[in-house]
Amino acid sequence: MADISLTTALLLCLAASLAGWVDAVVGGGGLLQLPALLIGLPPHLPPTYALGTNKAVSVTGTAIAALTYARRATLDVRLALRLGGLALASAAGGALFASAVDKRVLQPLIMVVLLAVAAFVTLRPRFGTLPAAPGTAPPSRRRVAAALLVAGVGIGFYDGLIGPGTGTFLVLALVPLLRLDLLTASATAKVVNVGTNVGGLLVFAPRGTALWGLVPFMALFNMAGGWAGAHMALRRGSGFVRVVLLAVVAGLVAKLAWDQWWA
Question: Where are the transmembrane segments (predicted)?
Fold first, then answer.
């Protein structure tokens, strides 16, 4: 497996299982998995191998989590699939442009947005924790169109372009746009995230930038983490998702700050 030791492979599999769990609950598992790959892969391999391997592994965990949510959570499957299909195309486009973008310019902007989001969620303790009231009308066409534009096109393109925190951004966008609670938003985000991962993988895979000997083993652990995370979120509800959301946002800000000023 590209000169990777057994110990390193086991540590990468552990990181994949934790990433699958985080992704299933609220998104942001790439905070664990992608840095682990960048550290664990042989230094002679370019970073694109970490990106490609990350996408190949992540798609399995998000798919398992999406299926778990679809079977047990209240989920508008048709809308989720529309968002996912649009996100797939947008992520593929973002991946094609990834090499042409100066990420040092975008990262500070993302950090500002995330800090604002963290402050908002902290100061609004009921944000996304209340389920929709019985008989609540479905979202209007205008709200659905806004969700397709922001989550499907915008965040999908972002995932292909940069990537970290995509699932978290999806949850934060879907709660206000579609008036969902955090649990339902997380369930919908999993379907969309499958699309973004497939879109990126369609660009990376033909270029051979994925370690296919390592992918099946990490994928198994990622799926196990995704299954466990989805079941835990369903069992504990939106309040639990909110706590994990704040933790992931804090981790994402720290990771981007490290990349920007100290890496």
Answer: 48-67, 79-99, 105-123, 144-175, 210-228, 240-258
